[in-house]
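QUALITY CONTROL LOG
STEP: pairwise intake check
CHECKER ROLE: data steward
CRITERIA: each record must contain a sequence immediately followed by its structure tokens, with no blank fields

ENTRY 1 OF 2
RESULT FIELD BELOW
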Amino acid sequence: MSMPNARAWIAAATLAANTACYSYSVVRPTDVPAGAPVRAELVRDAAARLAERRGRMDGTLSARFVAATADTLVLDVLYPRDLSAATAQPLYDRLELATSEVRRLEVQRLNRGRTAAVAGLGAAAAAVLVAALFGEHEHAGGTNGTKPGNKLVVPVFP
């Protein structure tokens, strides 16, 4: 396996690990702890109003939950990357939304099943990668520190 090919596998595994481990579940605003990552689906009028302020929007906001009252939600929404790229710290825009403007509020939670699956697939991919790299080295006429005819065995699971 060539090095660029190995890098592609590593990049794909990293991407899968970063996206597959979380899921969203619908919650009431009173059940969300401050600072929790949330996704808010907005009604059409609210999305149009915020599009004027924030630029292009698809009707959903990914944000950090700040607080909720009976008729208001307060969210910290990350500024678009091009506006916050000049600072070392991410910039947040604090939005106060009427509860009537939010169609659905979802909280991000760790999904243990997906996490276990990604970890298992990652371990299997690493084993295949190691086996391919050692196999390529052996076929290229090099030595892997074993006697001729012996194979190097790499245990994947203890």
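ENTRY 2 OF 2
RESULT FIELD BELOW
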Amino acid sequence: MCFKQIDIDYQAKIQTFVLACIFLILALYAHQTHAEVDSSDQTAALSDSNKVTYTIGMRLKSNDIAEWQHSAKIRPVIGLKYGKWQLGIGDGQSWQGSTQFGSEPALSYQLLDDANLDVGVSMRVHNISTGESFDVFEGGQKTLRSRVMLKHRINRHWRASMDWTQDILNQGDSTTLHFDLSYSWPVFKQSEFVLSMGTTWATAEHWRNSEARMNSNSSMPFKTGFEKINAGLAFKQAISRQWAWYSSFGVCRPIADLAKITGNREFVSGQVGILYFQR
């Protein structure tokens, strides 16, 4: 049994290494093919990079609407952007091009910012006990999580993204890969609906620790692989040049072996927020 467990862990590490190599090769290839930029565009971008812009706001969120009496939280939204550096939600321009409106307190750097392709890296304090980013109002085991983000704009409406996260301090969050496809539907001039769907691959260690907070039977043999799917619907609207509001709902459920261990319960999350952009 011990040798079998070691073999499973070894295979998981090999799969993680291979997927990570593929991800980095794609990112480097994208950077190489988009390396040539017009000098006039570089000058304009340089002048903009010297400006510090910010976003402030407030949001009401719940990670489990079925238990909203206990899970509903009011949290501030803060964002800063300076050149290729960004904290949280960034500024208004970053928010307009994003399909993830809930701000997470991550420090990120844009490696490539092309009209159709974005490649970036980020780092944040991650709460393993809650499965969320660091929250000063909540306790739990913390770790430092790095993230590599690749976003591709297929056309005016469709976007594809891929995220790779890694637990730097090796506290149990391990490695994850998330793939997402979204469709943007402009409703009015300053508003749009965004429909998204995706799936998550992770190591057995990640699934075991992330599900421990909701399932006490965490000693069962979790497996490495694609074990979760998700879908979401969001609406965002610019009220004026400085003000905007948004609302979003998401559904996440386990699949494959994870569903057998934890059950098929769907978790429905939602949030609504209002934002002010410094222009």
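INTAKE CHECK: passed for both entries
DESCRIPTIVE NOTE, ENTRY 2: The CA atoms of residues 5 and 55 lie 48 Å apart.
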